[in-house]
Amino acid sequence: MRRLSRKKALSLVKELDAFPKVSKSYMETSASGGTVSLIAFSAMAVLAILEFFVYQDTWMKYEYAVDKDFLSKLRINVDITVAMKCQHVGADILDLAETMIMSNGLQYEPVIFELTPQQRLWQRTLSRIQSRLREEHALQEILYKALLKGGPTALPPREEASLEPLSACRIHGSVYVNKVAGNLHITVGKPIHHPQGHAHIAAFVSHEAYNFSHRIDHLSFGEEIPGIINPLDSTEKITCNNNQMYQYFITVVPTRLNTREISADTHQFSVTERERVINHTAGSHGVSGIFVKYDTSALMVTVSEQHMPLWQFLVRLCGIVGGIFSTTGMIHGLVGFCFDLICCRFKLGIYRPREDLQLHHHTNNLNHHRTPLLAEDAARD
After folding, report:
1. Does residue 165 register a pLDDT over 50?
2. Spatial separation of the C-alpha atoms in residues 62 and 339, rounded to whole Å
3. What pLDDT is attached to residue 272?
4. Is residue 225 classed as helix, strand or coil in its secondary structure?
5. DSSP state for residue 279 in the 8-state scheme
6. Burial readout 309-324 (b: 16 or more C-beta within 10 A, e: otherwise)
7. What is the domain partition of the chain in residue ranges?
8. DSSP strand pairing (214-221 vs 74-82)
9. DSSP three-state, residue 45
10. CA distances (Å), origin 47, targets 51, 54, 144
């Protein structure tokens, strides 16, 4: 019974065979078919290798949603060097609710404003990257996938101590603020807070000491991630006027990054710059200094690194192999049909008239019989 059931099962499987086998005696091969087969197999191999490279690659997917997080704090990371002594400048933040955030998280470090050759090379390289990013926005995806592996973007330290006077002030650190519009300003004098607002004590600073030439080595919002290049990094402004105002209008967009290397909550931002000379007699009023006015966006962007699934890769691979095989077969059949049509029209090859074929066959027979006679005559001579 078992053998009978096995035979029935095998016969049932054979009946379900969707790939009937053709005997080799009924198959015809030709040089043209072999050439087309070689071309088809070569194309399959090349496209399969290219498809494998596509399968290994990844791309960034952007999703947009409303930012519902209103209670958390916004972190501002600052690294700005001003061409004034630290006792002459002060930095603080005033938000839209008239809440003054003291710059307790910021440090004032006396430094040299001029850069060393190594630092200047770093700044020029970063400036070139910034200019390319403004022209080709697709480079940001490369930075997300490559530089997030830990590429250094901070200004390299000085190789050795210099004898030059420390006439500049580096203001760096992190401050946590409310997620509302605010103004980070660096101006003359140390900030003080009072019930009617806030002020900067600048009574003991000479007007000739005013110099708001500055360099923004780093300015970012949210979690500080090595490798991200922000729009204002490596920005340098030099002025010869004592009453110069620099304004940066920033729109901050909350961003959530999910890549193979890192998963973090950070912020992107766009910036508009403006600078002018303060001249009250000419109607240009204001306060000399550096003002970074920021506002947060109501949208949140989720940037995730996507990879092609294995099943999709296999489907595309089968499509390549089957498509090329079917297409080349149809092209070969069409070319053969056109060739047969032309030969039939002009009576060439197998389509020659039967009389011509018989005459040609009779001529070949005469030549075949004449060859031995010529050989015997030559032997007699």
Report:
1. yes
2. 54
3. 92
4. coil
5. B
6. eeeebeebbeebbeeb
7. 32-59+308-370, 68-297
8. antiparallel
9. helix
10. 6, 10, 28
pLDDT surpassing 90 at residue 82? yes
Question: Residue 182's beta-bridge partner residues?
Answer: 95, 294
Average pLDDT over residues 292-314: 89
CB 126 within 8 A of CB 234: yes
- The answer to whether 96 and 177 are in contact (CB under 8 A) is no
Residue 189, both tokens: 């004098």
What is the DSSP-derived secondary structure letter of residue 104?
A: T
Which pLDDT band holds residue 119 (cuts at 50, 70, 90)? confident
Predicted local confidence at residue 78, as pLDDT: 92
The highest-confidence range among 2-11, 48-57, 187-196, by mean pLDDT, is 48-57
**139: helix, coil or strand?**
helix
112 pLDDT above the threshold of 50: yes
Instruction: Name residues whose C-beta falls within 8 Å of residue 241's C-beta, 6 or more positions apart in sequence.
Output: 277
Give the Cβ contact number of residue 67 at 10 Å.
14
Give me the residues paired with residue 265 across strands: 256
* Single-letter code of the amino acid located at 144: Y
Cβ(110)–Cβ(168) below 8 Å: yes
CB 100 within 8 A of CB 92: yes
Pairwise CA distance, residues 107 & 90, whole Å: 10
Q: Which candidate, 90, 291, 294, 325, places its Cα nearest to that of 180?
A: 294
Give the residue carrying structure tokens 């004592």: 242
Q: What letter would DSSP give residue 204?
A: T
* The pair of three-digit structure tokens given for residue 204, joined into one six-digit string: 């003991």
